[in-house]
Design brief:
three-stranded antiparallel beta sheet; Ribosomal Protein S8, Chain: A, domain 1; 16% strand; alpha+beta
Length: 352
């Protein structure tokens, strides 16, 4: 069997940056978007890494992702800001919001930036270590007011997007990195498996009659089914409740969401930075998180489980391994970008 091709992370960032620059983005903006996409692949989130690059290039080409401009500050208070993202590239906006929120948090303990009318923001986990490396805690969430694929608990009508929420929690060692959603699976994974003629690992979706199934095809054939909320048919009230909370944090706080006319694929974002030094202090914070991490690792695994891991632990291990040995891209990603490389005059990166 032929070994999959691997690429250095730096070469993939340059490659993505060059494509985005040729598509009209400023070099610094393109570099930020490229870095976030590649970090998604480094962490193993292959549906939210370079898999998105072709779609981003299409959005730039059509003008539904703006090439240039700045976010508008709609409201500004001591520890919070509301921005209008003007449909600029989401990863660049979120990185700027993270810098702003971190600066506020250093002064006031917490800093919150809400962004309405951002474009898609890629993999939430890709932002977290940027905060935890500074000894800061981060909470990041988003929704897409233009999309609906998740039904409320007990319903078959789509109302929400998967509505992910992520958090980065510092310890004295590797951080705890959470990245979950209000649905059992994502649109990215179901679309990939449907295109490949494969099924989900478990019945994470339902058909239009409410029957659970592992067939992602029910989401693409009329009448369409929906993604099940986290908890499924038995405990989906948990995911439903989480979705409502995330809608309040994103659309509610930004004042822009599903009650407004849809503008296309995008995101409404909530980002909060918390500085432990403003509370019990970072040393006491990590004393507590270190204890929790050690207790979880020491917990007796149930039969069939080799060891208990912390959220983000497997992704960080993959991140370090792929930084060292090269990034193994999901099959088809480079082939899908070939038309863009030819049209924009950018050479494919060399494999290691």
């Amino acid at each position: 069997m032929t070994s999959p091709l691997r690429y250095s992370a730096a070469s993939l960032v340059r490659f993505a940056r060059d494509l985005l620059t040729r598509a009209g983005l400023d070099d610094l903006v393109a570099a930020d978007v490229a870095a976030v996409l590649v970090e998604g692949d480094l962490l193993g989130h292959t549906t939210h890494g370079l898999q998105l690059l072709s779609a981003y290039l299409r959005e730039l080409d059509s003008g539904t992702m703006l090439r240039a401009g700045s976010p508008c500050v709609v409201a500004k208070h001591t520890a919070s800001e509301l921005w209008d993202g003007n449909r600029l590239p989401g990863p660049w906006l979120v990185l700027r919001a993270l810098d702003t929120a971190a600066s506020i948090a250093r002064k006031h303990g917490t800093g919150t930036v809400s962004i309405r009318r951002s474009h898609h923001i890629a993999c939430l986990a890709a932002y977290l270590k940027r905060a935890t490396d500074q000894g800061l805690m981060i909470v990041l969430s988003c929704s897409d007011p233009a999309g609906a694929s998740v039904a409320p608990f007990g319903a078959v009508t789509p109302v929400f997007t998967p509505n992910p929420i992520a958090a980065g929690i510092p310890t004295s060692g590797d951080p705890i990195l959470l990245d979950i959603s209000a649905s059992l699976t994502t649109n990215g994974l179901t679309n990939r498996l449907f295109q490949e003629g494969r099924r989900l690992p478990h019945p994470w979706v339902q058909d239009h009659l409410g029957n659970p199934t592992d067939d992602p095809g029910v989401l693409f054939k009329e009448p369409k089914g929906t993604l099940l909320p986290t908890g499924g048919l038995d405990a989906g009230h948990k995911g439903y409740s989480l979705a409502l909370l995330i809608e309040a944090l994103t659309a509610g706080l930004s004042g822009y969401g599903r009650a407004d006319p849809a503008e296309g694929w995008g995101a409404t974002v909530f980002l909060q930075i918390i500085d432990p030094e403003a509370f019990g202090g970072l040393a006491q914070f990590t004393r507590q998180t270190d204890w929790l991490a050690a207790a979880c690792h020491a917990a007796t695994p149930r039969p069939g489980v080799d060891k208990v891991r912390l959220p983000g632990e497997r992704g960080l291990a993959q991140f370090h391994r792929q930084q060292r040995d090269g990034v193994e891209l999901y099959p088809g990603i480079m082939e899908g970008l070939r038309a863009w490389t030819e049209g924009l005059g950018v050479a494919l990166p060399h494999a290691l």
